[in-house]
UniProtKB/TrEMBL annotation:
DUF1707 domain residues: 7-59
Stretches assigned to the Cell wall-active antibiotics response LiaF-like C-terminal domain: 85-156
Name of the protein: DUF1707 domain-containing protein
PANTHER family in alphabetical order: DUF1707 DOMAIN-CONTAINING PROTEIN, MEMBRANE PROTEIN-RELATED
Organism: Herbidospora galbida
Length: 253
């Protein structure tokens, strides 16, 4: 008889888990990277047991209705301004309302991967005059970039989720004059530290990043090379010790 955890998951069960994850994010329990990772993992899950692992560290109870909470009325924007200088925001921080980024002959970097978000959508108004604005997001989010660029560039380099998945949305309205606005994903930025949860290994394998993939093969080759180097070094040390002992014995005689 099939164990409950091994029972095949249905589409409705996957959507229910995705909604529960979204609610956990609005409650400040998950960062944007964690929400994105687990949302993708939910859509890739094949059994009820795999789905259960994604919410094992979250409170129980029925998920809330499938809509994003309204932004507080009259709430001021979060401003990040760089005028002939640099402004960076990364690590743990909270996004509760619209973000405004302004770079005038300067650079603004916003890393959203470890941010706590209070809705399924993040709105950013980016204004760049002879400067650069870089927005770093987890791969798997839905990036919507619009606006105007005059003698400048607006670029998106993000591995987005497949169509039909309810991935978190990052909406950027960009206005560029002789500058650049870039939205980049994990694969184009320095990695962040993620929690090693029980579902990570099967999730990586589902994405083609596990031990059975090229990524795993490369890691294995590196580890084998390190072990071989250590063996050669240890053998050389032992041989040097033996030679020194032999030399001292011959010297005594």
């Amino acid at each position: 008889m099939t164990e409950p955890a091994g029972m095949r998951a249905s589409d409705s069960e996957r959507e229910a888990v995705v909604e529960r994850l979204r609610v956990a994010s609005t409650e400040g329990r998950l960062t944007l990277a964690e929400l994105t990772d687990r949302t993708e993992a939910a859509y890739l899950a094949q059994t009820q047991g795999e789905l259960a692992q994604l919410t094992a560290d979250l409170p129980g109870g029925a998920p809330a209705p499938a809509y994003a909470p309204a932004k507080p009325p009259g709430k001021a924007r979060q401003w990040f301004v760089a005028v002939m200088g640099d402004t960076k925001r990364k690590g743990k921080w909270r996004v509760e309302n619209e973000i405004a980024a302004v770079a005038v002959m300067g650079d603004v970097t916003l890393d959203l991967r470890e941010a706590e978000v209070r809705s399924n959508e993040i709105d950013i108004v980016a204004t760049c005059v002879m400067g650069d604005i870089k927005i770093i997001v987890p791969d798997g989010v839905d990036v919507q970039l619009s606006g105007v660029a005059i003698m400048g560039d607006k670029k998106v380099k993000v591995v987005e989720a497949p169509p039909g998945q309810h991935a978190p949305i990052v909406r950027v309205r960009g206005y560029v004059v002789m500058g650049d606005i870039k939205v980049i994903g994990d694969s184009h930025a320095a990695p962040i530290r993620r929690n090693a949860l029980a579902w990570t290994e099967w999730w990586l394998n589902r994405r083609g990043l596990g031990h059975g993939s090229m990524h795993g093969a490369i890691n294995q080759a590196v580890n084998d090379s390190i072990r071989e180097t250590n063996r050669i070094v240890n053998d050389s040390i032992r041989e040097a010790v033996r030679d020194s002992k032999t030399a001292w014995k011959h010297r005594d005689h």
